[in-house]
Specification:
269 residues, globular, two-stranded antiparallel sheet, alpha/beta, single chain, eight-stranded parallel β-sheet
């Protein structure tokens, strides 16, 4: 069964312009008709390290935790930070383990210092494989979420092929993001089909032909075809997570995610 979740980055991307807290996010997401949430280590706020309180706050609004996303200032590409990054991930896994079925999503490998790309890919692969091993010990699926943002190491199909060739599919899953895949100039349906066994859940976003963010259903993403491929993938857990980065949503995040939820109803009808 398909379940529809909401990613909190729509608020996070506002930076200092966002003055609210996590409870405000929960209220807006529940009011918009979502059944789940993907929250980040930035937006978790005072609930960090408090899974019981966080769980009560979600349950009070009829929400489930679909995924927890975390990143590092290392971009997951600095060998000297491997040990500390894995320690952070291990602590995060303890939190996520309190929510059976939730996935730990690791941010895109990103270049944060000079150096050859071979070394960056090797460092990222070591981090992702190590995180997957920790996830197996705690019973939490671990997946990578490639992005098309500044200095990402995972932009093109060649980048995806390279990382997936260096990582163990038994340890590391994939959170495909339709917007980032399209911004990377990929054949989205072929990319999804090629790595379908890696897919754990899906991020749905939209862009126009120039790669600029658009509200869901207003760009070039063939959402129905994407969902059909993902839904038939063997390790897909049922969550379609809507994430919105357009200027329209930035002007009013609560309205933006509410509009996307209604659009999704229409797209799946």
């Amino acid at each position: 069964m398909l379940q529809i979740g909401c990613q909190t980055y729509t608020w996070e991307m506002l930076g200092d312009r966002w003055k609210g807290g996590p409870d405000d996010l929960f209220d807006a997401i529940a009011a918009a008709g979502y059944s789940g949430i993907e929250i980040t280590d930035t937006m978790i706020g005072d609930y960090a390290g408090k899974p019981e309180a966080f769980g009560r706050a979600l349950a009070a609004r009829g929400l489930e935790l679909a995924a927890f996303a975390c990143a590092s200032g290392s971009g997951y590409t600095e060998p000297a930070r491997l040990e500390s990054d894995l320690a952070m991930i291990d602590r995060t896994l303890d939190f996520v383990a309190a929510f059976p079925g939730a996935v730990l999503s690791l941010g895109s490998a990103t270049v944060v210092s000079p150096g050859d790309l071979d070394g960056k890919f090797a460092a990222a692969a070591a981090l992702y494989n190590g995180a997957g091993e920790l996830g197996q010990k705690t019973g939490v699926p671990v997946a990578v979420h490639p992005s098309s943002h500044h200095n990402t190491l995972l932009f093109s199909r060649a980048d995806y092929d390279r990382l997936f060739g260096l990582t163990d599919p038994a340890l590391l899953g994939w959170v495909p993001d339709t917007g980032h895949i399209l911004r990377g100039g990929m054949d989205i349906l072929d990319t999804l089909s090629t790595y379908r066994d890696r897919i754990r859940y899906l991020h749905l976003k939209d862009v126009d032909a120039a790669g600029d963010w658009q509200m869901l259903g207003s760009g070039i993403c063939d959402t129905r075809a994407v969902v059909d491929i993902v839904a038939a993938s063997p390790n897909f857990n049922g969550w379609l997570v809507l994430e919105e980065e357009s200027d329209i949503a930035a002007a009013d995040p609560a309205k933006g995610v509410r509009t996307n939820r209604e659009t999704m109803r229409q797209l799946l009808a």
